[in-house]
Amino acid sequence: MRTRGPGTDVDDFAIAYHEAGHYVVAHMFGHHQDGLTIEPDSEKGSLGHTTPMEDPGTFTYANDEERLERIAQEVCTLYAGFAAQIRVQPGIEERARLGARRDFEAAEGWLGREGLDDALMVRTMALIEEHWPAIGRLALALLAARTLDEAEAEAYVVTEDEDERDRDLARYRAYFKGRR
User: Fold this and answer.
1) What structural domains and CATH numbers belong to the chain?
2) Number of continuous H segments (helices) and E segments (strands) in the chain
3) 139 pLDDT exceeds 70?
4) Residues 6 or more apart whose Cβ sits within 8 Å of residue 20
5) Any alpha helices (H) in 29-149, and if so which ranges?
6) Is residue 117 classed as helix, strand or coil in its secondary structure?
7) Do the bridges between strand 147-149 and strand 49-52 make them parallel or antiparallel, or are there none, so unpaired?
8) Among residues 109, 110, 131, which one has the least CA distance to residue 17?
9) 156-178 pLDDT per residue, tens
């Protein structure tokens, strides 16, 4: 396992944004997650993870179009960790890609089996931009708590109060400004 911590090869900040990216995009598609963590798991060989409650390969679909859309959503969710990480830390694409290698392998497996093209990364990047405030709120909460269950994570993702969103965004910007 790689060394963790500020200034090392992998830091909690990057992992929190990576996992928050997965969680928020899955949530946006209506897919439930058990929770997320930035605690390493030596058995899985991961530095953090988001735990999906469902596997798209186990569903019965009404038609082929519905099945392909659900698989496209899964691929976007897999790409979302990488996309969020390079959004928050520009210039680390190769390092982030190495950290997301299992996500990429899983996405490429879906793409290859289903004959889909890789244009889904562009779709994923747009989703990350659209939901960036929620990703920031969730990543900061994850940095503080290290592990969040579904109910805790939802509290940071689903925020209807504009004043609360503005306060969260201000906290996010202050935290991020201190890291530059």
Assistant:
1) 12-179 (1.20.58)
2) 8, 3
3) yes
4) 36, 84, 135, 136, 138, 139, 142
5) 64-88, 93-99, 101-114, 120-130, 132-145
6) coil
7) unpaired
8) 131
9) 888 655 565 555 555 545 554 55
